[in-house]
Specification:
CATH superfamily of one domain: Winged helix-like DNA-binding domain superfamily/Winged helix DNA-binding domain
Strand order of the largest sheet: 1-2
Oligomer: single chain
Order of helices and strands: EEHHHEEH
CATH architecture of one domain: Orthogonal Bundle
Structural class: mainly alpha
CATH class of one domain: Mainly Alpha
Number of helices: 4
Distance between the termini: 6 Å
CATH topology of one domain: Arc Repressor Mutant, subunit A
Length: 118
């Protein structure tokens, strides 16, 4: 059996204040799609409290917020990605692409060194 194709998962750590990885990027993408932190969290199988906590962490970690939200009420609440939020996704995705392209040969070489898993 051929070894599964490896994937590179990018994780950026900015000290203790902020860590960015695939999960937070997916959360931002889903907030942009749904217009709601709660709906994005549900889509990812996480509580609203957890989703909101991750948004707060990202908003505090950047000079400008990545998500702008309004509380619910008679007209309902909502959330939108800011220009900063869109830029964060764009730059993160660019880094993922760069790593995938630059690391392809080394990933193949490592794959050839793996033990058979039959």
């Amino acid at each position: 059996m051929q070894a599964p194709l490896p994937r590179i998962k990018l994780r950026l750590e900015y000290g203790h204040a902020l860590t960015l990885g695939p999960g937070k990027m997916q959360l931002l993408v889903l907030i942009d799609h749904h217009g709601s932190i709660a709906a994005a969290g549900r889509d990812m199988g996480m509580s609203y409290k957890r989703a909101w906590s991750l948004v707060e962490e990202m908003n505090a970690g950047f000079t400008l917020p990545v998500v702008d939200s309004s509380r619910g009420g008679p007209g309902g609440g909502g959330a939108v990605l800011t220009q900063t939020g869109h830029a964060v996704i764009r730059h993160f995705r660019a880094l993922e692409t760069l790593l995938d392209q630059a690391g392809a040969r080394d990933l193949q070489a490592l794959g050839r060194l793996l033990a058979d898993r039959d």
